[in-house]
From TrEMBL:
Signal peptide: none annotated. Residues 4-104 form the Vacuolar protein sorting-associated protein 54 C-terminal domain. One of its GO terms (biological process) is protein transport. This is Vacuolar protein sorting-associated protein 54 C-terminal domain-containing protein. InterPro entries: Vps54, Vps54_C. The lineage of its organism: Eukaryota, Metazoa, Ecdysozoa, Arthropoda, Hexapoda. It is found in: Golgi apparatus, trans-Golgi network.
Amino acid sequence: MSLSAANLLGYLVELLNTFNSRSFKLVLGAEAVSEKTGLKMITTANLALVLRALQLLLWLIPYIRLHFQALLPESAKMTQLEAVTVRIKTHVKDVQAKLLSIMEPLVAN
């Protein structure tokens, strides 16, 4: 059981890393802006949507950790889960900063 749980946790960590990385590149890196996607610019709605998706992941991670702690001893996989949590939190701060930089001039007037 613990081998399959360890594999599943590894896949979940990989999925979280991939989502975080791709959403960062697409939204903050503006890779989503192309003729292929049809986007001409990244809007505040796009930023807000990715922010909420990342916040949802941060809300889910403690439940994932709790589930796997019951199945696995402390291991490198839990360390990887902590590492991806830190990266997602950093990404959240970056998106919030971008939203703030867009909204500040509007509120100041």
